[in-house]
User: What shape does this take?
Amino acid sequence: MTTRIVVTGTDTGIGKTVFSAGLAGLLDGFYWKPVQSGLDEETDSEAVERLAGLPSGRVLPEAHRLKSPLSPHRSAEIDGVSIEAADLAFPVLPTPLVIEGAGGLMVPINRQTRFIDIFAEWRLPVILCARTELGTINHTLLSIEALRARSIPLIGIAFIGEEVADTQRTITEFGAVRQLGRLPHLVPLTRETLRKAMFAGFDLAKIAGGD
Ligand SMILES: Nc1ncnc2c1ncn2[C@@H]1O[C@H](COP(=O)(O)OP(=O)(O)OP(=O)(O)O)[C@@H](O)[C@H]1O
Ligand SMILES: C[C@H](N)[C@H](N)CCCCCC(=O)O
Ligand SMILES: [Mg+2]
Assistant: This one.
């Protein structure tokens, strides 16, 4: 059973947090967003508190909370702080832990280090979230290539959005990667609709089985 899973994505704003909330709920685990940039609106951790249906204490505090909703490296500079890789040592816990990056793989945490460099150090299995809309084939295959070039274990793709069967098939075939499932855009998005959609859309054995 994989106890620590990194959730990353092909871009910012594609649904990593909602998927992470659903996954953490399904695994009855913990959630950690090491670096949160943007504090004026609901943070990722607050969204997971609202959506995951976990007991209190399961959403761990961020290592960095940065004011501006920008790339972490820039948001940190504006706040006059520096994010170091050592700040992002993941906690060792007895139960599953879902760790969410920020934006996509190449997003920098400072002027020398990107999230993908952290993931390569961690060597934890990764789930890559991807849209299903036009444009996702390129973004997803590029992300897969970047993970493979660094031997970062990739459990598979979590598609987010309406079904586009040929796009999903094209990505899994060219990427030689498992499709873990698909999370549609939920209206309304609630703890209940998310839990139902995760049970319907994903095979936990494929996910928890690891890379
Ligand atoms: N499956 C979904 N159903 C309904 N709304 C969704 C879904 N996935 C994402 N959203 C909405 O889309 C917006 C962006 O989603 P989310 O915050 O999960 O993106 P993200 O990839 O985590 O972004 P970031 O890179 O900032 O962490 C949010 O308002 C979220 O509520
Ligand atoms: C602010 C946003 N919600 C994320 N937390 C950070 C996204 C960084 C994206 C950087 C980029 O790819 O240009
Ligand atoms: Mg997020």
